[in-house]
Design goal:
Helix 3 (109-124) links the parallel strand 5 and strand 6. The chain has a six-stranded mixed sheet, with helices on both faces. The chain is α/β, with parallel strands linked by helices. The chain has helices at 12-24, 85-95, 109-124, 153-166, 171-183, 232-244, 265-281, 315-319, 354-375, 382-396, 403-417, 422-437, 445-464, 473-487, 494-506, 530-545, 551-560; strands spanning 28-32, 35-39, 49-56, 73-79, 101-106, 129-134, 185-193, 211-214, 225-228, 253-259, 286-292, 301-309. Residues 8-327 form the DhaK domain. GO terms for molecular function: ATP binding; glycerone kinase activity. InterPro entries: DhaK_dom, DhaL_dom, DhaL_dom_sf, Dihydroxyacetone_Kinase.
Length: 567
């Protein structure tokens, strides 16, 4: 996270509120001094105002929850700092309704202290006030007298109480309901990277490579426990067990998968799927599942999991519509979805040929290097796509297959199962070689591989339009074909393979004319094109498969690729 947008610290709270009021639309306004956001159009049946707040850095909580069906006011402090009591007092006075104000407070010392002082000031003015203290955090369960921290369960509390307030519940009813939800709630959070400090951009704490902080807080507090990274289902199972060890939940559970700021929505959805399956394995019925970034910690790379024992009495409030910009809009859980595969059944037990398995292992070994090359010009997924295509070919393979059959498996895998540009283009290459090799055996394979590469060049150029010099896989492929043709040879040999490797290396000096690197211009200079490098490596691999091999090629590949991953 850059510090650029928060460099003017004297105005960041009010500027954030101004932006939130614009996002929220009509009916939501903000006060600059003291800073708070408030709703000017409460529901007609609402008798109690809901007010919450806390340090900035947890957006969209709380300001994004102001509006119809949500909070009446939200008070932001500075980053990870509680609001001061005048903010809270003035916000409560501004929105107080006939039956008073309910304060929703996360259990942090500063928050509790300032909300409590504001509550005393309000009561002195004759305004009825109650509090709901949220203390759901599993990671601080042994914190002694101070109690557990308040974290992402606050989102669920505010959503349900917002709907209940719009239905006309009294102050006492809302306070009792909120406390009941809190008592049913538990949250555990993990992180692989801390947030960056707004002051200097450094990470708030370090996480050892290959490990996770298990039980982090939302203010940059490291966990008491560091665990080794495991597979997703193992990690989710451990989190679910921590939260449900004493949970019976006869009416099921409400689940919130919450991103801590640096975790993408796709990852959260994967996490949600694994959570639903883990709960089902433990005979706990999911009534609703929400996944998104609601209670963040700046850009912390992590996720929190909240499990709440459901109560049929308040589930309608959880599902109720609202008019806030950022509260979740939950749906009833439809049940565990079966993983569907529309492809024909294959005999996975048959295995693949030794050559194809070895090719898959070598490709996997180069995955990170290809991703790094691609990152210089694009999104860094080339190695992933290459490894994906080969893994699908292995699924198609049979232990008795020969090289020709394996090339066919590779062609169909890349064409049918890999997207982007690498999928179809490498599919065309494998397909052209396979079609020429279909009737060839033994020594003739060296001839037909070269002929297949020539046909592949034509097919790739017809499909993608690239020419030599455009910084694509065509540079390496054309160099192999042209070198052999220029020397009048009709078999793939050492010289043509070396020509391909040299052409791939030369793409490091090119400004791209085609492909993703064309969007970044000269910024890609200094790094060879990932596709060209992969094509050169493939040509060397095919040459080796038909009996080639030399120290010169090994050395050239070692210069092009890391020594530990070269062929």
């Amino acid at each position: 996270m850059t510090v650029l947008f928060i460099a003017d610290r004297s105005t960041r709270a009010s500027a954030g509120l101004s932006g939130l009021s614009m996002v929220a639309g009509e009916g939501v306004e903000y006060s600059d001094d003291p800073p708070f956001l408030f709703n000017t159009r409460p529901a007609q049946r609402r008798r109690v105002a809901l007010v919450s707040g806390g340090g900035a850095g947890h957006e969209p909580m709380h300001g994004g929850f102001v509006g119809r069906g949500g909070l009446d006011a939200a008070c932001p402090g500075e980053i990870f700092t509680s609001p001061h009591n005048r903010q809270i007092y003035e916000a409560c006075r501004k929105v107080a309704l006939a039956d008073g104000v309910l304060q929703i407070v996360k259990n942090y010392t500063g928050d509790v202290l300032n909300f409590s002082i504001a509550a005393e000031r309000l009561r002195a003015d004759g305004v009825p006030v109650e509090q709901v203290l949220v203390d759901d955090d599993w990671g601080s369960r042994d914190a002694g007298k101070v109690g557990r921290r308040g974290t992402a369960a606050t989102v669920i509390v505010e959503k349900i109480l917002g709907a209940a307030a719009d239905d006309g519940s009294s102050l006492a009813e809302l306070a009792a309901l909120g406390r009941d939800i809190v008592a049913r709630s538990r949250t555990v959070a993990i992180a692989s990277e801390a947030h960056r400090s707004p002051a200097d951009g450094d990470r708030a704490f370090e996480v050892s490579p290959g490990s996770l902080e298990f039980g982090v807080g939302i203010h940059g507090e490291p966990a008491r426990e560091s665990i080794e990274i495991s597979d997703l289902h193992g990690l989710v199972g451990r989190m679910v067990d921590a939260l449900t060890v004493d949970l019976s939940a006869p009416d099921g559970v409400v689940v919130l998968v919450n991103g801590l700021g640096g975790t993408g929505q796709l990852e959260l959805l994967h996490f949600g799927d694994a959570t639903a399956r883990a709960l089902a394995d433990r005979n706990l019925q999911v009534r609703s599942l929400v996944a998104g970034a609601y209670c963040t910690a700046l850009d912390m790379r992590g996720v929190s999991l909240t499990v709440v024992e459901a109560d049929p009495q308040w589930l309608p409030h959880w599902f109720a519509e609202h008019g806030t910009p950022a509260l979740p809009s939950p749906k009833a859980f439809p049940g565990i979805k079966a993983i569907r595969d529309v492809r024909p059944d294959r005999d996975a037990a048959a295995g693949a040929s030794r050559w194809l398995q070895d090719f898959a292992e070598r490709t996997e070994g180069l995955r990170d290097r290809f991703n790094a090359l691609d990152q210089a010009a694009g999104d860094g997924d080339f190695g992933d796509n290459l490894a994906l295509g080969v893994s699908h070919a292995v699924r198609r393979g049979n232990v008795d297959d020969d090289l020709v059959a394996d090339l066919g498996h590779l062609a169909s895998a890349f064409l049918d199962d890999v997207g982007g540009s690498s999928g179809p283009l490498f599919g065309l290459v494998f397909g052209a070689i396979a079609s020429r090799a279909d009737d060839a055996t033994g020594d003739a394979l060296g001839d037909v591989v070269l002929a297949g590469l020539g046909e592949a060049l034509t097919a790739v150029q017809r499909a993608g339009g690239a020419q030599p010099g455009d910084r694509t896989l065509v540079d390496a492929l054309a160099a192999v074909v042209d070198d052999a043709g220029g020397r009048g040879v009709d078999v793939l040999d050492e010289a043509s393979v070396l020509a391909g490797i040299g052409a791939a290396a030369s793409t490091a000096d090119m400004v791209a004319g085609r492909g993703r690197a064309a969007y970044v211009g000269e910024r890609a200079i200094g790094h060879p094109d990932a596709g060209a490098v992969a094509m050169a490596w493939l040509c060397a691999t095919l040459w080796q498969a038909v009996g080639g091999g030399s120290a010169s090629v090994d050395t050239a590949l070692g210069d092009l690729l890391p020594a530990e991953s070269s062929s």
